[in-house]
Specification:
The structure is a single chain. It contains eleven helices and 17 strands. It is α/β, with parallel strands linked by helices and 356 residues long. A hairpin with a 6-residue loop joins strand 7 and strand 8. The longest helix has 16 residues. The radius of gyration is 21 Å and the shape is globular. 41% of the residues are buried.
Length: 356
């Protein structure tokens, strides 16, 4: 066990593509989609053998503080870092880097999303340790996953040269979500990996990169850092963080940084980004459908059927998503599951916030 690895679990997302089960008070990371534990709890359990709770930082929204404390009772209170508002992953990681630097300036940060699926957890932990060791030398490191299919819902990493004698490769480019035909080409070429969204670096290195590529953010973090131990830290954090431009670490830093190293994660992985993704991580029935809860399916095939309370009965459906949760029902073609956030936006525009 390395004394120098801190885990930073990003638990601030809204998970709109999992409406109607995911709502404002229960975003995706708090859902029990894959087991009796929430995705956040599974992430914590996954890293526990190599990183104890004392070196785990969870970043989440103020509104979800009590939920996190209830779900992770072993997390030290001072290790829960609360964002005044959501500002995407670059501000989230910058704020966590300030805290880790104060705890241990020589540490390595393993930045992990709270809402992903990983099996073969032992292999996952080996990759986390290897990536952290590589990052301890001052590198920016990420983890890529060998594509299994022409996936249009993921970003990709284009592989470059080997990193010296290491098992890692350099990242030639971060590539946005491709069209289906382009994804087929990526898969056939063997030169691309799925972007897992896991990152490894020292706090000093990522803060330096923020100063280089996002100087306004870096200046704001400087002011937050100066106020950290003072009585006005809450006001300064509120003012500075709220004023930051929302931007992802991929777009704000990683796509611009030089010589990023990538290790291949040889473990089954999914970002569980949509209802359709459940077919990749849950057992399918003989008819190629997956179901959760009390479901009756007749003459159907290739469906995702979820009953979060009550009953879902489906007759003659093909390649559909049907989700019943609380006071709402979602029905859409499975291939359009990426668009569920449009439903959420339509509800908001219609003044139906009670369903969000």
């Amino acid at each position: 066990m390395s004394e120098q690895i801190y885990a930073v679990i990003m638990a601030g997302g809204s998970g709109t593509r999992f409406w109607p089960m995911s709502r404002g008070d229960t975003p995706k990371q708090f859902l029990r989609l894959l087991s009796s534990e929430t995705l956040l709890q599974q992430t914590m359990v996954r890293i526990a053998p190599i990183i104890p709770p004392e070196r785990v930082i969870v970043v989440t929204a103020r509104a979800h503080a009590e939920q996190v404390r209830e779900l992770l009772p072993g997390l030290p209170p001072d290790n829960l870092l609360l964002e005044p508002v959501g500002r995407n992953t670059a501000p989230c990681i910058g704020l966590a880097a300030l805290l880790v630097r104060r705890r241990d300036a020589g540490a390595t940060m393993a930045v992990l999303p709270a809402d992903h699926f990983v099996s073969d957890e032992e292999e996952f932990r080996q990759v986390v340790v290897s990536a952290s060791r590589l990052a301890a030398g001052g590198r920016l490191v990420t983890v890529g996953i060998r594509p299994l299919r022409p996936e249009t819902g993921y970003g990709y990493l284009r592989l470059g040269e080997h990193v010296g004698e290491e098992a890692a490769r350099f990242v030639d480019a971060f590539v946005e979500k491709p069209s289906f035909d382009t994804a087929v080409e990526y898969l056939a070429s063997g030169h691309f990996l799925w972007n897992s969204g896991m990152f490894f670096f020292t706090p000093e290195r990522i803060l330096d990169e923020l100063e280089l590529h996002l100087p306004r953010h870096a200046a704001a973090f400087g002011r937050i850092d100066q106020a950290w131990d003072g009585p006005e830290v809450g006001q300064v954090l509120e003012r500075e963080y709220t004023a930051m431009e929302p931007i992802s670490i991929d777009y704000g830093v990683m796509e611009k940084a030089a010589e990023i190293a990538v290790l291949v994660g040889r473990f089954p992985w999914s970002d569980v980004g949509t209802w359709a993704a459940l077919r990749e991580v849950l057992p399918r029935g003989e008819n190629d459908s997956v179901s959760m809860g009390q479901v009756v399916e007749l003459d159907g095939r290739g469906n995702v059927l979820v009953a979060d309370g009550g009953l879902v009965a489906a007759l003659g459906l093909r390649d559909m998503v049907v989700v019943r949760s609380g006071d709402a029902v979602l029905v859409c073609p499975r291939q359009r599951a990426q668009e569920v956030r449009r439903v959420v936006e339509a509800l908001r525009q219609a003044g139906l916030d009670g369903y969000l």
